[in-house]
Amino acid sequence: MPKHTVRMTPQILVASLVAGGLAVACSDSDDDQFAQGEDLFLVFYTNQTPDGITSFVAAVPDLTATSTIRAAATLEISGFIGLLGPATRDGTFFVAPSDTPRIDRYRVGEDGVLAADGSLSYEGLGSSQGNFMLRPNHFLRDDEAFFVVPAALKIAIWNPQEMVLDGEIDLEGFLPDSSDLSPRIIDSQIQDERLLITAGYFDQNNNATSTTRLAVVDLATRVVTYSENTQCGFPTLSVRDTDDNVYFIAHPLLGAGFAAGVTSFPPCMIRLNKGEDTLDSTFFVDMTSLTGRPTASVVQAPNGLAYVTISPREPSDFTPDNFNTLRFAGEWEVYVFDPRDPANTASKVDSAPPTADQIFAGVVEVDGSDGRPVPTPVVNISTTDFTQTTVYDVSDPDAWVAGLRVPGYIYNIVRSR
After folding, report:
1. Is the per-residue pLDDT at 135 higher than 60?
2. What is the 3-class SS of the chain, one letter each residue?
């Protein structure tokens, strides 16, 4: 059962929302083939049983309600994986197993069959887990990509065409000023050929502190610039406004945790202005200012806006004994707001069903009526036991449209071709 926010790649907006009574469409027939040249999306989802986690990567022709999961076009891998999808849409994708320091390359054939096509070992880089690959893996060009190795405080540079490592960039500026603190790299994203990486800091009892450090990496010169904010820590989420300013938001548990008195700082948001190398020292938002009630996840909405989950309960309803139960109660409401002025712009999204506290962000490119790809925000709504998920098109916040249903918990969707 997912317990912590995981940053998605820029192709998907995910919400752990409550939905019941869903019939999941599957096809076990190998004769059910894709048409040549048909659009394909890759859906990464998991099933968890007492015996462990199984991961699946399924190729589907579209994300509508009539689409199905086809057995012949599904890759099954024991354990947890990271799924990496470049923007080239040539049928190539990459998988990072959780138990081996390796990236495997796959190609999707015209018939939708997924076939292995090379691998790269990153043994010795300071991490033997592929789980961190859920952090964005950045494909800058066909032959140049980057991923962050949190345990080693490094950025690995690799060539997706040749499947070789091409170098490293140190992130030693994340080392704390005090031996009482330990850094945890949390998020990374590309902006104008710059890599933006945030880290939170934890005390000796593993409690999140209110300190965030940002690294801005110039990918041309490999120069790293650091800045710090001491009001808003544990920055796991981010959104952008229409001017491409980036807003970093603290972990979803902060809303319930602060209301219950178990965290030392409120749910909060800070900003990096477009073109700047350091955080805006004049911008800080206590997210409870939106409605006076606890907030949780903040994710990208269309037109430079953002969605946020807000509890229907008052802060006084949360206690140290019940706040985790209330986080997953499936009663949180979805609001939309302008991150430039949150307190004066928040309004409830009536078409969104009630949800658990956590949602995740991104966009899928879906062809429009003229055949051109249209960036389309989608929401994945899971049952409370995370055994099935429905994909919703949320281009219009007032009219969400239900689509593909999947027999598991979706972590990622990328367009393959």
Report:
1. no
2. CCCCCCCCCCCCCEEEECCCCCCCCEECCCCCCCCCCCCCEEEEEEEEECCEEEEEEEEECCCCCCCCEEHHHEEEEECCEEEECCCCCCCEEEEEECCCCEEEEEEECCCCCEEEEEEEECCCCCCCCCHHHHCCCEEEECCEEEEEEHHHCEEEEEECCCCEEEEEEECHHHCCCCCCCEEEEEEEEEECCEEEEEEEEECCCCCEEEEEEEEEEECCCCCEEEEEECCCCCEEEEEECCCCCEEEEECCHHHHHHHHCCCCCCCEEEEECCCCCCCCCCCCEEHHHCCCCCEEEEEECCCCCEEEEECCCCHHHCCCCCHHHHHCCCCEEEEEECCCCHHHHCEECCCCCCEEEEEECCCEEEECCCCCEEEECEEEEECCCCCCEEEEECCCCCCCEEEEEECCEEEEEEECC
